[in-house]
Design brief:
- Helix 1 crosses helix 12, helix 2 crosses helix 12 and helix 5 runs parallel beside helix 10.
- By secondary structure, the protein is mainly alpha-helical.
- The longest helix is centred in the last third of the chain and has 33 residues.
Length: about 280
């Protein structure tokens, strides 16, 4: 009786997945092969997305911002995770809870907070200007965008990487010290090789997280940044050019990059989990 009663719920669940996940993906893929001008089917939209310098630059900009913000967040999270091991479990849990909260602080609220603090008339900008401090940081430049991306990438990197640090045993450090190794040599030849699968998995997750970000960059400077997510939105809901077929092709290309990143994450992180266990 219980199995029969659960059947309608299971069917509704799969129907919702098909309606809100599978159907939009299928429609996007089909639409990406449709040529709106000639009404023929083919890879014309994909060729336009790849050959057009403007759209190709959007992919390149998204790739570079995602790459640098992921690398910076990954490097900073390594030192933060090392420092967290020195705290007591109670303090460590509170800091991880704070990281969990800040990792969800992104999008429009994050952009608004940065504008208030570091914008042209931000609190810190005016304060440093009144103190005659040589402050030339431009929040609305690519450096500012990379800084904002790094901010919401860093807490996520700490949450993903810290469990893997349990694989680093204190006995290993003591044995390395007895053999004459300094801390740098220990991390170079022992610690980093053990954590390398976690580094690769965390980097792929951070890269996918930054590559697919849209709200933060758009709320910060509108469509001034030539990013692939912003270009897709402009092609769907822009005031001048409406090319949903081209937007679908770019979305498929972006989705393929994100899928590859998540695939790398799942291929590398289980190895780290086994090492940590």
């Amino acid at each position: 009786m219980k199995q029969k009663s659960m059947l309608p719920i299971v069917l509704i669940f799969f129907a919702l997945i098909a309606a809100f996940l599978l159907a939009p993906i299928a429609i996007t893929i089909v639409c990406s092969f449709k040529d709106a001008e000639s009404r023929n089917w083919g890879p014309a939209n994909y060729m336009a997305a790849i050959k057009n310098p403007y759209y190709l630059q959007a992919f390149l900009n998204s790739f570079l911002v995602s790459l640098f913000s992921s690398l910076f967040a990954l490097a900073a999270s390594f030192f933060i995770c090392c420092a967290l091991r020195a705290f007591s479990p109670k303090v460590r849990e509170r800091l991880l809870a704070f990281s969990n909260m800040t990792s969800n602080f992104a999008g429009v609220p994050l952009a608004f907070a940065f504008i208030i603090l570091l914008g042209n008339n931000g609190v810190f900008t005016i304060l440093l200007r009144n103190l005659d401090f040589p402050f030339s940081f431009d929040l609305y430049s690519w450096k500012g965008l990379a800084a904002v991306y790094t901010y919401f990438q860093l807490p996520l990197a700490v949450l993903v990487m810290f469990p893997a640090f349990s694989a680093i045993r204190d006995e290993w450090k003591e044995a390395a010290a007895l053999l004459g190794a300094n801390p740098f040599q220990f991390w170079r030849f022992v610690g980093l090789p053990v954590l390398m699968p976690c580094f690769l998995g965390t980097f792929s997750l951070l890269f996918a997280n930054a590559m697919g970000a849209y709200a933060t960059a758009y709320a910060l400077a509108g469509s001034s940044f030539n990013l692939v997510t912003i270009r897709i939105a402009q092609l769907i809901a822009g005031d001048v050019f409406l090319k949903p077929e081209l937007a679908s092709a770019m979305a498929v290309l972006l989705g393929s990059i994100l899928w590859l990143s998540i695939w790398l994450y799942h291929k590398t992180m289980p190895e780290t989990g086994r090492d940590a266990a």
